[in-house]
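Archive entry. Fields below.
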Amino acid sequence: MLSLLIFIPIVVAIAIVLMGDKHAGKAYGLALLASLFVFAFALFVGIKFDPSLNQFQFVEQVNWITQFNIQYHLGIDGISYPLILLTSLLTPIVVVTSRTSPKQKYHQYLASFLIMEGLMIGVFCALDGFLFYLFWESMLIPMFIIIGLWGGNNRVYATVKFFLYTFLGSVFMLIALIYLYFKTGGYSISDFHSVPLSMREQLLIFLAFLFAFAVKIPMWPVHTWLPDAHVEAPTGGSVILAAILLKMGGYGFLRFSLPIAPDASAYLSSFMIALSLVAIIYIGLVAIAQTDMKKLIAYSSISHMGFVTLGAFVFFNIGTQTASSETMSLALTGAMIQMISHGLISAALFLCVGVMYDRLHTRLISGYRGVVNSMPKFATLMVFFVLANAAVPGTSGFVGEFTIILASFRMNLWVAFFAAITLIIGASYSLWLIKRVIFGKPLNERISGMQEMTVIEALPLVTLAFLVLSLGLWPAPLVEIMSTSIENLVNHITFSKL
Amino acid sequence: MYELSLIALITPLVGGLLAGLIGSKVNKSFTHWITTLGIFISFSISCWILVEVFLNPSLFLNQNIYEWMSIAGFNFKAGILIDHLTVSMMAVVTFISLMVHIYSIGYMHDDPGYHRFFCYISLFTFAMLLLVMSNNLLQLFFGWEGVGLMSYLLIGFWYKKESAIQANFKAFIVNRVGDMGLLLGIAVIFSIIGSLDYQTIFNSSTELVKAKISITNGYSVSAITLACLLLFFGAMGKSAQMPLHVWLPDSMEGPTPISALIHAATMVTAGVYMVARMSPLFELSSVALSVVLIVGATTALCAGLLGIVMCDIKRIIAYSTISQLGYMMVAAGVSAYSASVFHLMTHAFFKSLLFLAAGSVIIALHHEQDIRKMGGLKQYMPITYLAALIGSLSLIGFPGFAGFFSKDALIEAVAHSSTVGSEFAYYCVLIGVFVTALYTFRFLFMVFHGQTRFKGGEQIKESSWVILIPLILLSIPSILIAWPTFGVLVFGDFFSDSIRQISSYELFGFEYQSPLSFLIHSFSGPVIYLSVIGIFAAWVGYIKKPELPYKISNQFTTIHRVLVNKFYFDHFYENVIAKNTAKLGSAFWKFGDIKIIDDFLVNGTAIRIQKLSTITKKMQTGYIYHYALMMVIGLSLLLAWVIIKS
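PREDICTED_STRUCTURE:
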């Protein structure tokens, strides 16, 4: 089952590439069909998925490279499934919206996204460390191509920066994986979880993984590749980058760092919390100063991802208080919800910027004012997503931050206080953006002449708005999918490996 | 009754959504009928439940609607709590909302955003009901931010006006500062009790008293005090208490009906409501009560002073609202929660009446809001004048009017209180009474009396009936509402199921008999005389000797300047806080991100590697004789080293 999820998009992508340049329409139809099929299939997997089972499901396990005991080992649990669903949801959205901006080598553009989809699902499914690494690294290639070929003027700098950053991070992860291979005699992630490790080993492994995940999420101070990459990437690239690629870092913390090195995680938690708070406040302030819409959203993404890392580490001992397993569940669930929610909201915001960019070909805030006058429907949706970005209750943006702030307070007053400042900073950069772009008198004739969204542009935004709203009003189903896996993770972390 | 109250909650939502989604495709009358109908149903049900409650005082409902989320045994739910406080609030909110809906049919008639307007005010009503009907803090927070959001959208309703979108941005951010306090207050309670349900919280409030929360190593405060202070900080934002009041005068940029509904009667009182709702907790922290008292008293007096120097008709009423909210907080601070809530209710009636009357004037004068350009409107708009007069008399606490009972009761309570700070508060509210009378009658005299100071007086007409009917309907409770309810609500035990009630004798220092005896009793206190002096002062200054105020302001220039600049709060926030935050963000970005991280660390590393490689590159010349020379030099050095070493 899971193999199909991974390989259908890849196979279709190859077919599209082979079809060649001439059949843009057919390529589009095929890509859309394939991505929708994968989404339907992912939903079907979800129906079959039993959230109450305390184990990996849909497991596929085949020996692959026997000399090194590398296995083709797939499986999902409540932590990976929501991310897979998110991936399979956003790919058709990207495919649909790609139609409005015809590009050179359109079929290859589509194929890159489909390949990305397969590889990203692979990352979330892999239960073998080597396989995980393979997916993780090969994912860089299509993204590299997407930004490098269809990107903006300064795309070469951005792609090289993006590639070097993430690649450098991953190298350390590879070293950690090889060390763990020697320790356990294989690459099975479950074995990694259970192998006892000394504090020294744990610390080194934790740091090695940290390099890879911190770059990906990204955490301050290794975050500067993201705004550049976003600014240069085409709309679809930004959507996938913000919505899913960043989540790999968060997923990595939950799947590798915490369970493999629980004692090191606890030992370094204050450090991680400090970095998270820097991301939330410092980066939030930086976002206020931005003049480019995409950069603003990129910085706001980093700030929001700060909540993910905060949620992942906040429950460890600060001072004298000891974490209750309930607080741990609260914080980790919050981190997961924040990831899903940010995936939806940031994707929508980048699509919104794309809609405006397609009309006026500028991303500068100063190039806009009073868009609501000519595009009232679009303005309504954009205001909605911006409010969700500012974590207004009733939208999914609120759920994760609320949960994490509650959990933080159970551990430490000040951590919660600094995290809660995001209520002000987040509202400031979000609402100031729409004040300058959406509201006001039209800046010039080009603004008053902007065409209202087409159906193709509106459909993805409406879908995302519906999801953001439903998740905000009723997060219980999502929480239920994750609860057993998170409980399991919490139980695992609370046992020392020493 | 659960189903009924659910319907009362939902109908404004449905009406608002229909108006917003399909209203513009149908027509205007569909929009105002569907939304007004929604509110009317909600209002009728509220009244029905209110009557039921009066007939059967033990009626009580606490039921969850659905589970929002449940993590590791922590349950977050949406639910309805119907008790005497809720049902009174429901009745007030839906009544004012209904009046404003009807009024807006006339007021917004020619506005291109007609459908949007009705959609927003109905959704606002839904959010407000969500807030007051909640049985837990999470849903309260939903409603709390929901009303803030609708207020944001309505202040910026005329989005082409630069001042409007500046005002709504400011309102949202200032409110968010308060909301941060509220959220942290909720987090304090959750961290100790592990639940956000009111009933659970109140039942285990002793745990909050016992628990300590460490601020720094070795220093900790009691959880109850911290929780109450943080909750009150939230209330300060919403209920515009100083120093978080700055957004409310600016919010007057929105259409006048919403000023009446949101920024006078309902949303801004949410803070007062929340303090009353949380009274079982506030009662346990004397520190928090004193803070409430002192902040409230300061606000009551200072905002009133600002009301005297404002020239915009709506801003005068806005400062008056801030001042009256201060009065409500004062009452809460001396534990007279029922008096606080009662003043909230009477204020809702007479203040929305005043706002709607002001709106009637504004629309008659084609959106002129400067009272210096009004005057003598009494003869042109008799019904509006009468409404404004009734509202004003009720506001200053003229004996017999609704505002008299509520304000006098709370001043009595302050006089008999022994809470720390109550003496200071007593003087504040007493001077406040004089100030209130002064600015109210200054407004009334300058708008309706004296000479006309505008052009084209003949064309000024009384507003249409759809505007006047709400004025008339609001005038009635502004005069009479206290007579049947005062005794039961303030001195009786009507609110005892929801508000921590202290015996009225303990609070007020005398036995209550009847409204009439209360009225007679009040003549022995200073309050009535102070308001009479206030009216007299206004009469002298604005009818008898109109040049006097100028003389005074010229005499006391410094005081006048401080007042006209609104105590420099806006100045401070804009020039010190907002500007420096933006500068800080810019500095972090340009210096931290670009200079240090990008230029020095990231690109710097790349450049250094490049430089290093240019140096090493030079050795790779490709000429054999260069390499041969290198080899010879290398060999000789090696040889030399071996020889020297041996």
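CURATOR_NOTE: Strands of chain A lie at 57-65, 70-76.
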